[in-house]
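re: that chain from earlier
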Amino acid sequence: MTTTGAVTDTDSGGTGRPVAAADAGHTARTRGQVRWAPFRSTERSAVAAIDLLRRLAAEGGGGRAPAPREPEVVRFLGATHRTHWPAATGCPDWLTESWAACGFPERDPRGPRPERIPDRAEVLEQLRFETDRTSRGLTGSRKAAAIATWLSPFYLGGIVTAAEVLEVLPARLSMPVRVKWQASRVRHAIERELRTLLTGVLGTDPQAWLRLLTAVERTCRPTSDRPDITWPQLLELAGSVEPDPGILLPTRDLEDPRTYVRRGRRKPAADELFDATWWWPSGEVLRRTESTVLDLVMPALPEGTGVLLAQYVVAVRHGTPPGVLRHLMDAGDREALLVLARGMDLDGRTAEHLLARGDQDIHLSVVNTWARVAPDQRHQALTDPAVDLAPRVSEILSLVHHECLQAREPELIEAAFAGHGQKKFKVQEHLTGCLALLRAGGPARLTALLATGRVSPAVSRVCAKALTAPDPAAALRTRAQREFTTPKLAARLRRVSRSSGATDTAQLMLLFDGWGADWPYLEAEHAREPFAHWAQIVNRPSTPPEVLARHTDAAAQDHQRGRTVCRSDDPVVARGILRNGIHYGSTPDGHVDLLDRMLAEGVITADDLVRVAGQGPCVLQYLGDARHRADAPGAVTEALARVAVLVRRHLPVDDEAAWHRLYARLAAQSPDPLQEGTIESVLTAGPEDRQPRGAGS
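^ sequence. v structure.
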């Protein structure tokens, strides 16, 4: 139905009376009942997806595709927030033309309001203006994080590149000491470009790096009276500077008399690296440097610089750079590695590398880290045959006693039974501890533990009977199998406490490891009645890839200990991530980063984007934005070519019915909309199709 000018109620199935413009596009059935604006990710991406498809149709030489004309469809698409328009071009002309053709008010606050997109020169000039104000500390100037937020759509739309931003951005504003860059895609792109720039210009010449360190230290300190300059300008300046390693030491304001209460203990500010005010410009260079360069440069720096670099990395709280970690490991700088191990943000990845050193103090720090280190890493430290923790058993926190039940050394197991947490042990914990003690200390040690009365009476009887068998360990394990069934695991998972459920779930899954979990049973139980902490159940190193691939959407919600979806470098899991959809929302940086990385590493392919990835409109929006970015993965071009073939085959510009079905489908106006499916299923669905086709079909 073509609609122009005013809309009457006859068009809406009514009596023929004119209706207000505010009600235009609604039927008597839907007025006041349907959502008037996009809500889900696929709906918010509809305008950008349609714009890309129309452009591909025109680029194929077929001419201009018909524009949307149904009032309900146009009203819905017109309500898309401007942050979801195509990043490179802004509000599409076809949308404003369709809005006007439906007779909707031009200045409707719920309708599209075109805004001019600045070009490259204007963006860089505005960036120059903003950074100049920020550098001089003028009132009302933007913070570094706000500048990154403002820059993000211009970068994602390919209007400016990371290299062009580096030509304008003062180096000091990329130094995140107490000035937190937003963790965004544009920041990651700038960081990657900066590392490429430094390595490309300086190579592996230690004298060249020392000259840069000296130039950065003299120019970027707060006390410097020199004007702010960019990284490329610093590299140019460094060519005429004599190296002066003696000045390459950090400034820390540790004179704050305040004290901080941490877990009941009062500590001076000097003991809290992240409570101090740091300024170390040359440290900003060092933390961005590859390990091969650090191996050459660090010997020329003042003694103890390795420890200072580790302290600086902890204070910045941006994670431990792989280059820094690898250098400190290769150099065997024990004091520096201890600083990293004792840092409050120690994560599982760093912990696994540190444990490889086989140092008792590092192992103890990993065991006692509760915030970001998972039970799996603590278990690795407690069972490491190369490191004895028994002499330090009194220093292990009671919070970890539950995991000490599986330790390699009998002293740690006995400490778990002697701790306050023993009162919460169930049958499985008692059996686990007894099995481990029998394996580590022999029958005599287990007999002594049973004599203390700390083992439950039921398990004590089981152990006493097993000790009379020719092979006590085999007998006890055979009896224990009855208690480690998947139904009993499921029952315990449903009883975890509300306050510590995520941690308790992770510990339970570790406790039942090695007993052969029945994943189909767990999945069926979750489908019948969802587990409260399903994310912690599936997001584990021991989860089979095919299981994790089916539940990557849940694993992505595992924010405990700062973890993310595990093993996204596994092709099976990566395809699962795609199949569950990328959720291209108002802040798509994380998903753009993930897609870019998986495509660049070859974990997923262009064909996967078209035929496997769920939420096709979101993927189309990603492709539409990425085609304008100079640093987009090469697979983006291949995927666009595949989409163009589908458009020519299934959406010829002279087939108006097919295009209007597509518009209604993406605007959630058709029965059982298909927009949750793959790009292929969205584009090839006929009028009789009412459900998304299986991803990857």
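Residues 1-34, 254-271, 690-697 have pLDDT under 50 and may be disordered.
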